[in-house]
Amino acid sequence: MMKIKLKKYSKIAVFSVVFLGIGYMGFLWYGQNISSLNHLSEDKLTMLDDPQLLPEKTAKLTAIEKDSNPIPIYGHWQNFTSKDGLPGDKAYCVRINGNRVLVGTHEGLAVYEQGKWRTYTTKDGLAHNGVLSIDVSELTGDVWLGTMGGLTRWSAGNFENFTQFNSGLPNDIIYSVICDGKDVWTATAGGAGHYDTFTKRWEIFTEQNAPMHEPWTYGVCAGDGKIFIAAWGGGVVEYTKKTKKFRDYVDPDGNMEMDLFPDDGVVHDITTGTSWANGNLWVATYFGLSRYDGVHWKGYFDHDSGLASNFINFVRAVGPVAFICTDKGLSTTDGENWVNYTKNDQNNAGKTIIIKGNEKTASAMSPSISHNFTLGVDVKDHVIWLATSKGVSRGELLK
Amino acid sequence: MKKRNYCVLATLVLIVMFSVSNLNGQEKKLMYGKTPDEFFPYNNFQKAYKYHFLEPIQFYGAGREKLSPKDLNEVKIGFLGPLEGSALMSLGKQMLNGATLAIEEANRKNGYNSIPFKLMVHNDVGLWGAAANEVVKMDDEKVWAFMGSIDDIVSHVALRATLKLEIPMVNTGDPDPTFTETNIPWVNRVISDDRQSGYALASYIFEKMKHKRVAVSRTNSRYGRVGIMEYSGVAVRLGHPMMIEERFNEGETDFKMQLENIKKTSSDAILIWGNAKEAALILKQLRKMGMKQPVYGSDRMVSAEFLKIAGKDAEGIVTTSPYNPNADTPKLKAFQANYYKRFGLEPDAFAAHAYDGMNIIVEAIKKAGLNRVLIRDVLTDLKTFQGYQGVTGKIIFDGSWNDIGDIWMAKVQNGQFKFSASPPMTMKKTSAEKKEN
Q1: Of the options 3.40.640.10, 1.10.3720.10, 3.40.50.2300, 3.40.50.300, the CATH number for the domain spanning B195-321+409-428
Q2: Nearest CB to B129: which of A15, A190, A299?
Q3: Which end of chain A has less Cβ packing within 10 Å, N or C?
Q4: Cβ of A89 under 8 Å from any chain B Cβ?
Q5: Cβ–Cβ of B48/A215 closer than 8 Å?
């Protein structure tokens, strides 16, 4: 009698566990999907269609070339390291300047001209060998170099250095320099600096006279009559040149550990770069990418777009396309479609990955880009140059 | 046979149940900053679209393949701290002492493969952003890692340069929560931050001591502005927003105006967030004005300077502390004895944490070899130093390499700070919620 009862109860217990288990899993499934649906309705982003998880079709590069692609695709990569004449392998930035290419490395400025590299260092007159940023003045042709020890103007073969001791430069570490007509703007470790090359006067912008949370800045760009400063911890600071007025764009949720809504402003207040083109401001952060069209913000993360990684070192917009230097390769996008360039860990080959909506196509390339940790990029006509943690790469437009 | 099948089925269901539960990534936010679910911003209203710092970010750059240099005479480690021209000089000197002691002990134990360690000392105060320039100098000096600093602006500025230059950085003195929220994979913090302080103070003030109306007086510096943020957020979530937030400048000596405003709020407690000197003066003046409420404070008040200036008015003050000098552990006792023998004074929190931080750097170099990226890998792998037993206690890192180990409450009794464990961080229902139910 006792045996029968035990048997009966053990059956009931087992069925209870199974029933409860199935119910619990259903509850979890419901909870997760309701949460995703909330995001869909709030943010119009497809959590359920994570592009990183899309099945990857493979295609030959020649097939991709023939296909219609909304954004340019580059290939035929050629890579350069210290073995090829660069002063060092770590390249921070690159700028195409007519028939030559300027590369900022940790060990000096490298100039590529007629198939040869030439190096310039402090011995030649640079403020510091670590060259973090380069721009060329369209007005004068002068090359401006943001270094780790001051700002250098390279003009008519001469180097002239501006430091915080001999000029109004806010700080000697210049993370970004741009030329905007007669004006030169710098983003430094001690604020943003503006130098008028006609009057030779400096202006410094910090939290004391601009809506920055902190005095440190990381990126600067010009466009639409405005200057956009990536203010580390303070989002983006916009300066209208005509009115000399500032306004700031920050992440409205006010918290560093989350992004409450992705399309309500810049995705994070720690901004690392800005670039303006075609009416769009692109903002790089170590937490994702943002685009602002003057009215609406749009956020992009690696889980809901084709972005190779949320950790973005640099962004440059050319026309409708943004070139995004991440720690896991180069991403390019027009905001809808994506093309990513990545390198395999074990060899020199890699992949070109094209994401159009829910369609993902990967094509093998050999050689690929020099390294996945990308730090700077420039594009002109049919050529792209890329600065990476280990060398620089030159690619050609395939279509 | 049937019975066995049922058991197997039930076991499988249980396994699947718990694995599905673990896959629910959004719940991982509990790991960040040891933040209780209820303390998380917007928790009661909306799940965030994206939570950061759930998983430690990796460094994917090049450099691991670089070989150690040969023919080195010394292994250089950088030090960045307030040593001249700063209100934090006394803390900076203690920090330097702690780091120096660790280096000297390491060298007595054969250094790095018989090569002595050498501390490259840099002062962090000067022109705007000067800390970044000092990090560039350290790169030129070819340090393998560096320690710094205490001031939050200095530490932030140095951290940014660190990413460009790729030098491992260990921070042992800056409590700014946003410091490790920058997502830069080159830093560890080996001291509890103001997030932990804010949580502990809020729990102590509202849950343990049952205060309801708390006024705040805080320094008008970044230390005060950012430091009070986490306390303020939790106070709101507990249903007790600050009655008033009065600010004072560092170096100020007369706080009558701010204290008059605080007096008008009829608060049942006062929280002071600032450096020892100003906090002690505020305390004296508020008592003189007849305010008898219990007073609480931030951890920089745990100092001999505070006790000296505040005198008998310090009695009963409660603060948080990232260090318990009275902990009964042999490691701490030995450190205190050696420190006193070497420098002729008692170590403070900054000395003790610097000692732990420098020992961690030394061990990382010994394990990884002379390669900055490999040293970084060891410092941030969340294995090698997870649960590290230092003189300051057990060090536990969260996903952003922030120390979420123990924090203590310090109460002045008979003219001395007495230390006890901080209360657990839980949130009971607010009175409004109780009524609703």
Answers
A1: 3.40.50.2300
A2: A190
A3: N
A4: yes
A5: no
- Measured in degrees and rounded to the nearest 5, phi and psi for residue B115 equal -95, 130
Cβ atoms of B317 and B307 within 8 Å: the answer is no
pLDDT tens-digit series, residues B246-291: 999 989 999 999 999 999 999 999 999 999 999 999 999 999 999 9
**Contact assessment for residue A279 and residue A225, using Cβ atoms and an 8 Å cutoff:** no
- Tell me which chain A residues have a C-beta less than 8 angstroms from the C-beta of B157: 189-190, 216
Residues A22 and A62 placed together within one structural domain of the fold: no
Residues 148-177 of A with CB under 8 A from B: 148-149, 164, 170-173, 175
Which residues of chain A does B50 touch, with a Cβ-Cβ cutoff of 8 Å?
258-259, 262, 267, 287-288, 301, 303
- Residue B252: Cβ within 10 Å count: 16
Residues A113 and A8 in one domain: no
The DSSP bridge pattern shows strands A391-397 and A74-80 to be antiparallel
Same domain, A36 and A59: no
Q: Are residues A206 and A347 in the same domain?
A: yes
On whether any CB of chain B is under 8 Å from the CB of A53, the answer is: no
Q: Is B360 helix (H, G, I), strand (E, B) or coil?
A: helix
Query: Do B75-192+328-397 and B195-321+409-428 have matching folds?
Result: yes
Q: Which residue blocks in chain A are alpha helix, DSSP H?
A: 2-43, 61-66
Instruction: Please report residues of B whose CB lies closer than 8 A to that of A92.
Output: 164
Same domain, A27 and A134: no
We report the CATH number of the domain holding residue A342 as 2.130.10.10
* Beta bridge pairs of residue B80: B122, B148
Give the count of domains, chain A: 2
Using an 8 Å CB-CB cutoff, list chain A residues near B159: none
**Cross-chain Cβ contact B3/A10 below 8 Å:** yes
Q: Is B24 on the interface with A (CB under 8 A)?
A: yes
In angstroms, rounded to a whole number, what is the distance separating the alpha carbons of residues A271 and B160?
12
What's domain B75-192+328-397's architecture? 3-Layer(aba) Sandwich (3.40)
* Residue indicated by tokens 């934090």: B88
Q: Taking Cα atoms as reference points, which of A360, A384, A380 lies closest to residue A370?
A: A384
Domains of chain B, residue spans: 75-192+328-397, 195-321+409-428
Q: Tens-of-pLDDT digits for all 399 residues of chain A?
A: 444 455 555 666 666 666 665 555 554 444 333 333 333 223 322 333 456 666 677 766 666 666 667 799 999 999 999 999 999 999 999 999 999 999 999 999 999 999 999 999 999 999 999 999 999 999 999 999 999 999 999 999 999 999 999 999 999 999 999 999 999 999 999 999 999 999 999 999 998 899 988 888 999 999 999 999 999 889 999 999 999 999 999 999 999 999 999 999 999 999 999 999 999 999 999 999 999 999 999 999 999 999 999 999 999 999 999 999 999 999 999 999 999 999 999 999 999 999 998 889 999 999 999 999 999 999 999 999 999 999 999 999 996
On whether any CB of chain B is under 8 Å from the CB of A139, the answer is no
Instruction: Please choose, from the candidates A208, A209, A251, A205, the residue with its C-alpha nearest in 3D space to the C-alpha of residue A228.
Output: A205
State the average pLDDT for chain B.
Answer: 90
Among the partner residues B132, B156, B178, nearest to A173 by beta-carbon distance: B132
Domain span at residue A28 reads 1-43
Asked if A233 reaches chain B (Cβ–Cβ under 8 Å), the answer is: yes
Interface check B345 vs A, CB under 8 A = no
User: Are both A122 and A245 inside the same structural domain?
Assistant: yes
Closest among A143, A132, A209 to A175, alpha carbons compared: A132
Decide if A389 and B59 are in contact by the 8 Å CB cutoff. no
A33 and A66 inside one domain: no
